[in-house]
Amino acid sequence: MSLHRVSSTTSYEHVRNSSPARSEHTKMSFNPAGSKLMPPETKEEPIGASKVPKAKRILQVSIAVIYCLFSAGVVFGYAALKPVLVKEGVYRELCDEKEEIIEMERGGSGTCYEQEIRLNLMFTTAAVVTNVCALPVGTILDKYGPRISGIIGCILLAVGSLLMANTFTPQKFFLVYLIVPISILIVQGLIMPGNSYRTVGEIMAQAETAESSPRFSNGGNDARSRQGRYERRESAIDEMTSLLGKGVNKQQQQEEKRKRTSGVWGAQHGRSAYQQIRTPWFVLIALFTVVQMTRINYFVATIRTQYEYLLGSDTLAEKVNHVFDVALPVGGILSIPFIGLVLDNTSTPFCLGLLVTTATTIGILGVLPYAWSAYANITLFVLYRPLYYTAVSDYAAKVFGFHTFGKVYGLIICLAGLLNFSQSALDAATHKAFHGNPVPVNLILLSFALVVGVLLVGYVWHKSRTMHREQLEVEAEEAPDVIMPGAATEAE
Question: What span, in angstroms and rounded, lies between the C-alpha atoms of 253 and 290?
């Protein structure tokens, strides 16, 4: 999962110059079930980020990045963990000695079919649970805040480490890994915020509430009421200025430009989640996400065995695996600023087209039996993976809106996670039907992804053109009539 790329500075000046009857700013919720199904919140009211020293906020962000890297690495860095488990003989008892000898003679790592299936199933299950947990995690985060969510995560991480230590041979590794959840628990209590900081939208909503409050609108014309209303509005505006800086108007103009550039902003805004998921906007992005996530996780889990077959050498496959282990986190970090530039300055159809083109190129490189294609494949893959996750959330925010973001995006990720169990069938087909050859399965996934991707890009491109034409028609209808110079004289 990744963070969406849509900020909210819209209508900043609107707070100063008018008093709308209702708030136009909805708090972004990560709760897929919707706030109406939740009991009243018991946590403290969030505070504005401007009230926390800047140095402390930078420290909090830095710590969050570090502990996310160490805690998420167990699942998303499974390509590095799997060779260790193989070397330590995890599930080796399931192997037939004759089958293992044959595998060694082929130049493989000595894993048999049953061992390979179970090792890959570990990753598949972890990836599925990670995505499905987006549903309850969103609810817990909204209701109890980030500190309680973090503490629950620490407990789960510690329990998982103990289970792994008691189950598999490399006990020392998993016992030492307990340092990670313990460290996270300490920083959650000492440094990290107990509640989420207030967003710009929430601050603006506070100012608008002050403006439209019955206390001020009904009999509240005395000097004290007007002064109280003024102070609340100015406090909210000062807080926004502190967060966004003095160039708020410029930021608002940039935000409006990004919305126009996307070409699909607001396509499904204002509709219920049930209405949204019945449209091609949802169906196509969900299918695309399912296929791409399956391809990504399948590659992460099987990169070593795939290149053992393609390159015909365990030594070369091991080198490729080591490069991948390093490149995966590094590529994710280095690609972050470029992802922002692409999503902010290009249209959504272009971004989706870039995803489909890159995914297709990766698929082609992934079936070529050459070392150079293996390293080229890895390079593109580690750059594509964060772009893909961020682009999907960006699409959901721009097309479906913030009001239903938790439900719609959570459902997309949940479906993709559940259908990732198909990896077991792909493993079985590779080892049994195709005798260890990964090319047929990769070509099947590549073909399906290409078809779905072309349909998605074509639909979004067509709709963006339709929306642009409709917008021009509306602007033309609303434009005032202007008499051409000299027209009146000619008429006389």
Answer: 36
Query: At how many degrees (to 10) do helices 371-400 and 405-418 cross?
Result: 150
Which distant-in-sequence residues (6+ apart) come within 8 Å of 1 by Cβ? Answer: 131, 134, 389, 393, 413
Tokens 């800086």: give the residue: 245
Overall pTM > 0.85:
no
Check residue 48 and report its DSSP letter. Answer: B
CA angle 272, 278, 283 (to 5 degrees): 120
Question: Do 248 and 12 touch, CB atoms closer than 8 A?
Answer: yes
Q: How far apart are CA 4 and CA 25, in angstroms?
A: 17
Q: Residues 63-82: pLDDT tens digits?
A: 988 888 888 878 877 877 88
Give, in degrees to the nearest 5, the angle at Cα 430 between 313 and 452: 115
Query: Which two three-digit tokens encode residue 420?
Result: 């990732």
The label of the residue with tokens 């082609």 reads 364
Output DSSP code: residue 277. Answer: T
Dist CA 367 CA 256 (whole Å) = 43
Residues forming a β-bridge with 48: 198
**Distance in angstroms (rounded) separating the CA atoms of residues 481 and 41:** 53
H/E run at residue 204: helix 200-212
